Amino acid sequence: MMNSQPLLEKGTIFHSKAAFNHALQQWYQETAEKTIGNHEYNQSSWLFVELGGYKFHLNSDSKREGIAEYLKLVEEYPDDLPWQIVANNRGKINKVTFGNEKRKIAGFYFYLAKPLEQVTSL
């Protein structure tokens, strides 16, 4: 039975890709929500990942379809899906891309909290 409480509470922090991926998989399987932020359509940060001194955030308006595409990539890279930080549409180096192909995922709004000086891989 679905309830009005979001499965993933705003402000949840993950300390590994595996924990983040598992939580997204659980959300995708157990809810029918259209966005990760429980119908919040603004661009507020909803979930956080802290890795190796970097802090990432997934925006509340990230769409179910974008999360599904991300989870497919996780399956393609079962050991560790590569993340790269590249320039966003405004030139700030804070947009996260995925896999060896540096794929940008439509509807998956995942960013580094503090922009970098150069493109970086994790």
For the terminal residues, how far apart are their CA atoms?
38 Å
Tell me the structural class.
alpha+beta
Query: Biggest sheet: strands, sense, closure?
Result: 7 strands, mixed
Query: What percent of residues are in strands?
Result: 25-35%
What level of helicity do the residues show? Answer: 10-25%
Number of strands: 7
Average pLDDT rating: 91
Radius of gyration: 14 Å
Strand/helix succession: EHEEHEEEE
Query: Within the largest sheet, what's the order of strands?
Result: 1-2-3-6-5-4-7
- Individual helix count: 2
Low-confidence sequence ranges: none
Shape: globular
Describe the structure.
The protein is globular, with a radius of gyration of 14 Å. A hairpin with a 5-residue loop joins strand 4 (83-87) and strand 5 (93-98). The model has no long low-confidence stretch (mean pLDDT 91). The termini are far apart. The chain has a seven-stranded mixed β-sheet. It has helices at residues 17-30, 64-76, and strands at residues 12-14, 45-51, 54-59, 83-87, 93-98, 110-116, 120-121. The protein is of the alpha+beta class and 122 residues long. The chain is built from two helices and seven strands; from the N terminus they run E-H-E-E-H-E-E-E-E.
